[in-house]
User: Fold these one by one.
Assistant:
Number 1:
Amino acid sequence: MENIRIKGVDVYHPDKILDNEYFINHFAERDKDIERFLAHMGRNKRYVIDNSEENGLTMGVAVAQKLLNKLKLTGKDIDMIVFSTQVPETTFPTNTMFLHDAIEANSETIIFDSNANCAGMTVAVEQASYYMKANFRINRTLIVGSDYNSLISNPEDEITYANYGDAAAAVVLEKTEKDSGFIDAIYHTDSVNRDKIMYPGSGLSNMNSVEDKYIKWLPFNADLAMPPTYRMLERLLERNNLTTKDIKAYCLSQFSLANILKIKNEFTLEQKQLIYVGDRFGYTGTSSPFIALHEAVETGVVTRGDYVVFWTIGAGFQLVAMLFKY
């Protein structure tokens, strides 16, 4: 039976590091104490773009080239390319068009951009896995997730400005006859918060103020996402005859350390099963579960044959959980 495995994963981030002290001082000047907020989110450092040469597209190109070199592949070996981003450098042509050129891919290569907000790269991997199973011509797919979050983070809003970082991740999926790869995925969508996190805040057709340069983030009950998350993870494991102890690593959204700890407590997980990189990278959006996977692979926590669960959340909100045998 033909399976779709993750052949390799890599990450890229800019050089500039900002630590908590920078943001604490920034918001102290605005009479805001954000130390408890930073502890709740689990932040310490984050990488941010601080020059005019870098952006979300250049990060995506850099991580793609880095991964292909590591895997000893070229653009000619790739049959499909997906660029996942919620902060595209261009809406047309696609960001993938520039990536296609940079890696010198074939003219037959399928290319497109994908946007499911912070859930985007996980959704792209799930969708590509199913498509590869259905199309015998597609043997390898390159998926890049890259968000230039600091570009649209409001300096007056700690939830975005002090929380987000800039980074990109890439994976290559390939067909294999081995007992490994994509197994299953499950979604939960509830549009209750569809107007709480928006960019541009007034919509493209009504952009008329300086505030539209930044993410509009209105208060909402984030705890609404946790009960369906627990049900999703339970169902995902149950229908594949697995228990929580069978999972070597949980590569979860790095948006909030508090959410990761809630999942840990709900399922009585061991600390070593939870991969956390949000203290070093901040919240990187679409790429965050795969930066966690990269950490797990590089540190030897995950090796071939291990079960890995991904989980993340997109604005609005959309939840996706995915099961792989790495």
Note: The CA atoms of residues 54 and 326 lie 32 Å apart.
Number 2:
Amino acid sequence: MKYRNQILNICILLLVINFTSCIHEKVTQKIIAKINIENTREPISKYIYGMFLENLGNEDVGNIVDDGLWAELLDDRKFFYAVDDKDELIPINRKEKINQWKPVGYSKDILMDSLDSYVGKHSPKIMLNSKKETGILQSGIAVKATKNYTGRIILKGTPNVDVTVSFIFGDDSEDRETITFKNVSPDYTKYDFSFNSKKENPDATLKITAKGEGSFKIGAVSLMPADNIDGFRPDVLALLKDLNSGIYRWGGNFISGYDWRDGVGNPDKRAPRYEYAWKCLEDNDVGTEEMIRFAELINVELSMTVNTGFGDAFSAAQWVEYVNGSTETPMGKLREKNGHAEPYNIKLWCVGNESYGWWQLGTKFL
């Protein structure tokens, strides 16, 4: 038995050596391939390679608004949340990061006015204290050195109130730029501003304050890099365009609770909403017109998704009419009123997103 096992082992070893030699011989052989370029077939469809876009997400899911495509630097720019000293947000916000507006001066001097709001449920009203600077600020804004930034603010105030907007990009006294709007209008009015950051800082601050007597209100604020292209970052647009995708589908989990009417018209007048699918704030800055323009900028075909969660067939049909209908139709007239007379001619539409999933609002399978 002992000699038989030895003979068997020797045979196995010889087989392994022979097999390895054969493999080596085959590997070292040249492989010659010939391609007949005249033998063509149907082109590969552009729809084979594309992307999928979520408006919102959290720490686990990338999205347009928070992950660098949209250029807005301010969070909650239309004041969905109250301006106060509390760190807890109610309702909860599951975004990976959200910068909150905080009081400058006494928090009791900041009121959330629901009777005369500019947009949404309320707007901050700042009661001035003649002895000290009073207003609001937002920190945690990432800025680049030597880069220009542009913004706008919607203000109204009592007579003789001068509102100062300060851009603070460092710890030294000279690391700031300011602009003062004298005697702001008694009606909500848009004021434009621009700044230049002399330093790179991941924690810059925008501060809005006044001194003296009376009060002023803030309807909305925006701050973007000056080189943005219709609200989008040019560097990210260039990267996406280089991917040469054929199609992008717009409409993920958020679409199951989305009302398209919230995302058309003047962005400053689009009310912020609580987005229940992702449990976070939806500013409604990136809506129908923005997404169609985005697709044009990177040269892809856009596929839009209608809401089959909490939505209905009538709302979906109205959205299609808004996008593609003539100005003789009710929704086409609304599109014309919003600045675009010609139909957008979006050809591809999806009916809902993952309607089978428990994570979708209005899921059909629970």
Note: The domain at 46-70+230-351 is CATH 3.20.20.80 (TIM Barrel).
Number 3:
Amino acid sequence: MVYLKAQNKTSTLNEKHQAVNVKNGDIMAVANDRPVIIPPTTTIIDSIKTMAGNSSRRLIVADAGTKRLEAILTSTDIMSFLGGENSQLVEKHFKGNFLAAANAEVRNIMHENVTYLDRHASIEDAIKIMIKQNIGGVPIVDEKKCVCGICTEKDFLRVVAEVPANKSVDQYMSKRVKKAPSDTTIENAAKMMIENRIRRLPVIKDNILLGLVTASDMVEYLAEGHAFENIVTGNFHEAFNVPVSSLIKKDLVWASSDTDLGEAAKIMRNNDVSSLPVIDDGVLCGIITERDILRAISE
């Protein structure tokens, strides 16, 4: 049986659990018991602000009074609203009026068929269901289906950081990597993510990797300054017609293919990133993500 020491989850986590039994431990040992919750009457534009303001990739949608779980909204859903299948909302229901669509209630794009777990579930239950459903987070509810937490890939990342896994990055990384030239517009980069069902995109210039851009980076961009002004005035295309390279704010951090998964998790945690490009001899050969590490934990 494997035990992993919890590292820097929250100020209260170490007080509650000094060690987490990965197979049979209580899900609330690693879950965030203060998730970001919005009511279904929240507007899409306000959900963008909330998501960015809380640096969250997903929002739980629940009844404002009872906190009873209704749905979940992710940064990918926001991208889909802007340029994917949900963008039909703008054309079909609001006759191309983007401003009106952005002020529609979030219930128009949220996922009501949401996977969730009871608060008495085990950590193993969470890992299994997240991998099976291919989701990055699962709400935790009580017997009345009222939200009491959320467990995400990032929570597991914090648990395994610095714990030697005796498994290398190259065993779990994605080797087929979709890349975007630095002058690709944010709009086209978003479409690439949606069409390829990916949440992150390496940005290159002259075959040199500049950094990774994620769906969350795009949501944060839309919630700030001039971009947000363009959104609220309906000038969506102007907001998105800038190079995707402008979204790169962090220094490039990476791992080599022989890096231990525990060390890779530590690098991600310390740099607050959800993935690492894998570089050998100066060449991008893959990406390792939180989900890949979650798969490794499950084995």
Note: The chain has two domains: 3-160, 169-298.
Number 4:
Amino acid sequence: MASFRTRLALLGSASGLAAGALVPVQLAGAQPAAAASYDWVALGDSYTAGVIPAAGDVFEIPRDGCERTDQSYPQVIDRDLGGLIELTNVSCGAATIEDVTFRAQQPIGRHLPPFSEDPDYPFPPVPPQSEAVKPGTDVITVGVGGNTLGFADILLKCLELGGGSGGVGTPCKDDLAASIPGKLTKVSRDYDQMLAVLHDRAPHAKILAVGYPTVIPKDTSKCRYNDPHQFLSIPQGDLDWLRQDVLEPLNKAIEKSTGTQDAASFVNLYDSTQNHSVCDSGKWVEGILDHDYQPALVHPNARGHRNAADHVTSAILNAIAPN
């Protein structure tokens, strides 16, 4: 992948933006920097917002419970792109597709019993994320779908059912497999509706649907049973099922919905993260607990967000480049 500076220089030479975008410091007596040339709205769930301590510090004071962190990929890109794009980041932990599209959400902060209690919980509702999209918005990124699928609940159920398994069998698959096709159908239906709403709100915007990274490796023998830094009590057989029948189909459903919109494209994070799963030594996604024994519940760390930032940056620059 070309470096950010190289890509931005190429974009700037084509659009007349390079002089403003690439000057690292303002010379004494020079005119103030011009306003950003493009408006970008970042929508999504915890995989966009950051949420966990391993993805940085919550930077918004007072907290609204959405837990956007300073190492999440929208904030990384915002720093990388300088004054080229004006970011509005309304991503929110635990958001469903409906919360992005039309429903006010009550954020949960870091209130995750029995793992953690948040002293500021409960938080007031936040507006539907789509309301941040305006007719003049140029780029929309959206990373959502896992909570509509109910992945957090599935994960917790798998932990519970696997607790007495000794790492043998597929107790979670046996209990939940019949419910997954219906959940995936709802993801597809809700995603189609969301894309239509976003297009109506910003008819000229490019919509970038950001997929989910690799969480579970193809070789689940890497995953140690009862390791809290990996998947704790989930047996290997259930991990194979979760990868093949739950998480990979989720990405495919998102990509398929994106293909129905001319103004939308899919940003694939899955392939680039194949060797950086929860069970890999160079992990970009934390396990149930992070290395400091803080709740992470299978979310990207700062390195995972840095990888996402590289891919989303490339997609944004391609979206705004002159034809």
Note: The CA atoms of residues 50 and 72 lie 5 Å apart.
